[in-house]
Structures are given as structure tokens and as C-alpha cells.
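Holo model, heme C. Inputs:
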Amino acid sequence: MPSYRVVADGIPEPLAAGSGDAARGRTLIVTRESANCVLCHTVPDAAVRFSGDIGPSLEGIGTRLSIPQLRLRISDNLRVNPATVMPSYYKIDGLDRVAAQYAGKPILTAQEVEDILAYLVTLK
Ligand code: HEC
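Output:
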């Protein structure tokens, strides 16, 4: 797994070579598979009928946080808040209680992080 550079509270460079695809990112979120963000966050999307409220609503998140800040929060929110319950989706070391299916690999691929990021920036 390639490493990334953290500057202040963000990751400035893209994790994947290809650019993020917002439509794919939306699909990852609304289908509730590995990126089950709506377990904890409300997303302003008609396809999401039920969602949790453990985390803040993601409505308007594209105006509240920059792209590097969003990239770090998706990849490794533990670095932003060591007490967070949010999974670090692009990290393999320093984690507790990793499910067997995820041992040694991140929950999302680098491309999936970029796709989700491309979707989040559309939430203005
Ligand atoms: C188990 C619950 C949980 C899941 C699943 C989860 N989050 Fe979070 N998230 C949180 C909580 C709680 C916070 C509040 C801050 C903290 O704990 O660090 C947060 C914070 C955030 C923030 C910063 C919000 C702000 O206003 O500063 C973003 C962005 C975010 N999450 C995106 C995502 C995305 C995208 C996914 C799916 C890939 C996801 N989260 C999955 C619980 C979760």
C-alpha cells in the first residue's frame, strides 16, 4: 500500500493516478457496502432513505472542508481525532479490532477514496 503525505490536517496529493469519479463515489455510498458512510452520516440524496446520526450530516461538506481535508478524514480520521469511531478507510497499521476480511488491506482502495471524495465535493 503506497504511503501518502499529510500536511497540516489534509492529504494534498491524490492517492490514485486516475481522477475521482463522483458517480462511482455516490454508488459506493448509496449501496452501503464497504463505504457504509450512511450508517453514521446523513447524505442529502433521495436514494438514501435511512441513515444514522452518530456523525455530522454530510450536507454542505464540500463547502465546509477542502479536498485535502476531506481526503485525510476519509483515509485516516484517527489522525484527526484519535478517539473517533469513524473507520480509517485507507490505513492498515495502528488499527485495533480489524475484521479478518480487512486484515492487511485497506477498507477502500485508493481509487475508491478518490471517487467518494469527488462525490463529497459536489455536496455544496
Ligand atoms: C461508525 C460511524 C461512522 C462511519 C461508518 C463513517 N463516519 Fe464519518 N464521522 C463519524 C463521526 C462520529 C464523525 C465526527 C468527528 C470525529 O469523530 O472525528 C465523522 C466525521 C466525518 C467527516 C468530517 C465532518 C465534519 O463536518 O468535519 C467527514 C467528511 C466524514 N466523517 C466522512 C465520512 C465518509 C465519506 C464515510 C464513508 C466512507 C464515513 N464518514 C463513515 C462517524 C462515522
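Residues 35-37, 39-41, 54-56, 61, 64-65, 70, 73-74, 77, 80-81, 84-87, 89, 116 surround heme C (CB under 6 Å). The chain has a mean pLDDT of 92.
Archived with the compound record.
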